[in-house]
Design goal:
- The structure is a single chain.
- The chain is elongated, with a radius of gyration of 24 Å.
- The chain contains 13 helices and 17 strands.
- The strands form two sheets. Strands 7, 8, 9, 10, 11, 12, 13, 14, 15, 16 and 17 form an eleven-stranded mixed beta sheet that branches. Strands 3-2-1-4-5-6 form a six-stranded parallel beta sheet, sandwiched between helices.
- Helix 3 packs parallel to helix 4 and helix 6 packs across helix 7.
- The chain is of the alpha/beta class and 422 residues long.
- 33% of the residues lie in helices and 28% in strands.
- The chain has three domains: 150 residues, NAD(P)-binding Rossmann-like Domain (Rossmann fold, 3-Layer(aba) Sandwich); 165 residues, Dihydrodipicolinate Reductase, domain 2 (2-Layer Sandwich); 80 residues, Alpha-Beta Plaits.
Length: 422
């Protein structure tokens, strides 16, 4: 870092990348040396003097101190590996790459004496990574959970407020730019899965295997489910959570992403539209919640620029840069199988409108040790079938599935939806 000026190379000049350039333009002691883009001739809101289509040029450029990666995807991994080997610090917003390859990348960074900062990879503009590693470092946590995807939260909010179908709300989200043309990663829960993997890694000081995280999206949620949940005192949210749990006398991490019925009395039920929230429960702090914009040009570039300025303040002042932000663990967590987890459940059942049907449901639940908290019939459908809603007390997932299989052995009975309760 010559003349005390931090020299930056940016990979990706999309929405976030352009936001980063705008934010950094007011700092005279930071210079953007070059940017790697797919299309040099594309019209952009910002100007970077040196553009290249080869990101390896940035990784090999001796004038660059920090690589800022805001392109997304895992294809860029090899470029970052080369940059780290060339002693460049990394600031990134790439949750998928971190969730899939972070262990290798952090080990490599440690070998080469450089830092990787990634505040923008989880919850956009909400400061959460740095607070966990610094202000909350004295805590032992047993739970982290949140609404980590703005697209799905927007869709569920509109389904609730306007009584619209999932498909109608997805279209609205796409028109407003909250959802991509291909929303698969968001609506199927992958985006939230990557983020909860990163959070679990730092909260519990264990490496996480994303292939062992249970994931379920929101595509099966209907306006009818949201209406019934509302009548029962709940809202439906896509929740990503990781918590300590005892299974088979062994401490494990229960990490998963799926829709949940959340009691209206819980603060997280009031998180609307594209807003994100992260909850932590630990000792001595007890329960805390961080709320803010989870995506967007300036919220995300706020976190990216914050990481860059943090590096700027540390480089050349000490031999080891930001030791608190380094990865200090190498052991993988024991992760629970969803079949062994314990939850309350909302189950929507379609069956014949005959005397004794509710009794059959009660008998099937009793056979597998499932206690019921609530059971109601919601009228008769046009085809003559009845809709019955069941809320269970805490039950083991595998027993719930056995009960469902028992009920569905009757060809006239179908489980329309099963949603866990927070």
């Amino acid at each position: 870092m010559e003349n005390n000026k931090l020299k930056i190379g940016i990979i990706g000049l999309g929405t976030v990348g352009q936001g980063v350039v705008k934010v950094l333009s007011k700092y005279d002691d930071i210079e953007i040396v070059s940017a790697a883009v797919k299309n040099i001739n594309k019209q952009r809101e910002v100007t970077v003097q040196n553009l290249t289509q080869d990101p390896y040029e940035l990784a090999r450029n001796a004038d660059i101190d920090v690589i800022v990666e805001v392109a997304g995807g895992c294809e860029i991994l090899d470029v970052l590996v080369e940059a780290v080997k060339n002693k460049k610090h990394i600031v990134m917003a790439n949750k998928e790459l971190l969730a899939r390859h972070g262990a290798m990348l952090f080990d490599l960074a440690k070998e080469n004496g450089v830092s990787i900062l990634y505040e923008a990879a989880v919850a956009g503009g909400i400061p959460i990574i740095m607070p966990i590693k610094t202000s909350l470092k004295a805590n032992s946590f047993n739970f982290v959970a949140g609404i980590l995807n703005g697209t799905t939260n927007y869709i569920l909010t509109k389904m609730e407020e306007e009584n619209l179908s999932y498909e109608e709300c997805l279209k609205k989200a796409q028109e407003l730019g909250y959802a991509e043309a291909d929303p698969w990663s968001d609506v199927e829960g992958y985006d939230a899965m990557y983020k909860i993997a990163i959070l679990a890694n730092i909260v519990f000081n264990k490496r996480i295997d994303i292939n062992k995280i249970y994931r379920e999206g929101i595509t099966k949620i209907t306006a009818f489910d949201i209406q019934i949940a509302d009548e029962l005192g709940y809202k439906i949210k896509l929740i990503a959570q990781a918590k300590k749990a005892q299974y088979d006398n062994k401490e494990m991490l229960d990490i998963r992403v799926h829709p949940m019925l959340v009691q209206k009395s819980k603060a997280i039920s009031e998180i609307k539209n594209a807003t994100n929230a992260v909850m932590l429960d630990g000792f001595p702090v007890d329960k805390v919640m961080f709320v803010g914009p989870g995506a967007g040009q300036f919220p995300t570039s706020s976190s990216v620029a914050g990481d860059i300025l943090t590096l700027k303040a540390e480089i050349n002042r000490r031999e080891e840069i930001l030791p608190l932000m380094a990865c200090h663990h190498s052991v993988y967590a024991e992760q629970a199988d969803i079949e062994d987890t314990i939850n309350c459940y909302y189950i929507r059942i379609s069956t014949r409108n005959n005397p004794g049907e509710i009794g059959k449901i009660g008998t099937a639940c009793g056979e597998f040790g499932i206690n019921l908290s609530c059971i109601i019939q919601k009228g008769t459908n046009q085809d003559g079938s009845a809709t019955i809603i069941v809320i269970t007390e805490n039950s083991i997932e595998k027993n719930i599935n056995k009960m469902i299989n028992k009920l569905e052995s009757d060809n006239y009975t179908k489980i329309v939806n099963k949603i866990r309760v927070m």
